[in-house]
Give the backbone structure.
Amino acid sequence: MQKKINVPLNEEDLASLKAGDRLLLSGVVYTARDAAHKRMIEQENEGIPLPIDLKNQVIYYVGPTPSKPGEVIGSAGPTTSGRMDKYTPRLLEVGLKGMIGKGYRNEEVKKAMITHRAVYFGAVGGAAALISRSIKSSEIIAYEDLGTEAIRKLTIENFPVFVINDVHGGNLYEEGISKFKQ
């Protein structure tokens, strides 16, 4: 069974999610990859307001390809989340509540997700063209000079994800591995 959750996230939805849940997300998410994360942290360190309010928001780790004529966005598959790990705890401190990507997160990030009550969603790598069908609009809102790594505001509808790490410390990857060791 797939749950349907709207973004921005709220405490009730966050508390109800468990590692392994399949979800369909709808609402607004923001894209950001390595270069955008680095710039946001630099701005935060300098006391410059971030270009987006991260409170209760979700960042999708993606650098979409250019759209073809008549399409909202090009291929939009997830990138490896671990590259953002050095920036993530700080962004969770300022209100980020969800991240979409692929791959493992480090221990510091997993602890910060529990402390700040945030979740990590996995999107299926290799399904970029399929995922892009769930994106209804795309608008660059910051760091246009970064090209595909610019921050975009995406409006999504029934965007398929799995809960990898939940606010309770659940971890789909660890739970999956332990089932095979039994």
Q: What stands out?
A: Residues 2-181 form a domain with the fumarase fold (CATH 3.20.130.10). The chain has a mean pLDDT of 93. The CA atoms of residues 62 and 78 lie 5 Å apart. Helices lie at 11-16, 34-45, 88-93, 107-115, 128-132, 172-181.
